[in-house]
Amino acid sequence: MTTLEFANVTKIYNVRGSGQLKALDDVSFTLSSRQTIGLVGQSGSGKSTIAKILTQLEVPTRGEVLLDGSPIPRRGKGLRSYRQQLRMVFQDPFASLNPYHTIRHHIERPLRLDHVVPRQEIDAEVRRLLERVRLEPDAVMGRRPHELSGGQRQRVAIARALASRPALLVADEPVSMLDVSIRLGVLNLLADLQREEGLGVLYITHDLATARHFSDEIIVLNQGRVVERGTADDVILRPRDPYTRELRAASPDPEEFFRARSAQTSGGVR
């Protein structure tokens, strides 16, 4: 089992002309394989800063990130190995895929860089990964991102993230840029992959309704501080902090969302 510990992390930015901005204030949590944590908060709450620190795009001002009890290396083979263990699905599938390259190239690249399978097995692995995210390989491999729908592009991004066979996945608002009609299919796919692959998933969102039904634990952030945490049902049904109650009031009815999810029938990928 892989365990990622975000330990007492504070992040302070120096803003020119405005002094300092504390984006995170002593935030801690532990994410393990086969667990989904929903990280919930409005824009500016610190969610994306956590994602950047986990992917080593930012460095904590105080605190540290530990993988299986050891600090994350900041350079060299150790950092590369860490990035193979933790992959990210970005918010915007329109921007996260290079428009000049084919879908085959996007999936092949991490397979080659991380030496996931022998060279002669790369084509078969590309096909397997696309099928894993419910895309037809022959229909999409030769295409470029602009030739696919938004939902298909996000599925390609998920397949690319899975190519290195990570233990942990950071999904940063993975459906917020998609049409409402196709969000549920992508979220169901992520939930199935988490369960079947034994992934640890940090699901970053502003929507308590989806966080409840896709998370084991929910952490609520407000202005860089953890204001509430607990099991998904406890946080949604018995919120203690006023901010959490405001988020719940602003979210769609969780029971209605769950009924829609349960009633969804299989169909074509959009």
List the helices and strands and how they pair.
Layout: E1 3-15, E2 19-32, E3 36-40, H1 47-54, E4 62-67, E5 70-71, H2 76-85, E6 86-89, H3 93-96, H4 103-113, H5 122-132, H6 137-140, H7 150-162, E7 168-172, H8 180-197, E8 200-205, H9 208-214, E9 217-222, E10 225-231, H10 232-237, H11 242-250, H12 254-263
Parallel strand pairs: 3-8, 3-9, 6-7, 7-8
Antiparallel strand pairs: 1-2, 1-4, 4-5, 9-10
Helix pairs in contact: 4-5, 4-7, 7-8, 9-12
Organism: Microbacterium flavum
Pfam family, one: ABC_tran
GO molecular function: ATP binding
Properties at a glance:
270 residues, globular, alpha/beta, ABC transporter ATP-binding protein, ABC_transporter-like_CS, six-stranded mixed beta sheet, Rossmann fold
Description:
By secondary structure, this protein is α/β, with parallel strands linked by helices. The protein has a single domain (3-99, 169-263), classed as Rossmann fold (3-Layer(aba) Sandwich). It is built from twelve helices and ten strands. The chain has helices at residues 47-54, 76-85, 93-96, 103-113, 122-132, 137-140, 150-162, 180-197, 208-214, 232-237, 242-250, 254-263, and strands at residues 3-15, 19-32, 36-40, 62-67, 70-71, 86-89, 168-172, 200-205, 217-222, 225-231. The protein has a six-stranded mixed beta sheet with strand order 6-7-8-3-9-10, with helices on both faces. A four-stranded antiparallel beta sheet has the order 2-1-4-5, with helices on one face. Helix 4 (103-113) runs parallel beside helix 7 and helix 9 (208-214) crosses helix 12. The longest helix has 18 residues, at 180-197. The radius of gyration is 19 Å and the shape is globular. It starts with a strand and ends in a 7-residue tail after the last helix.
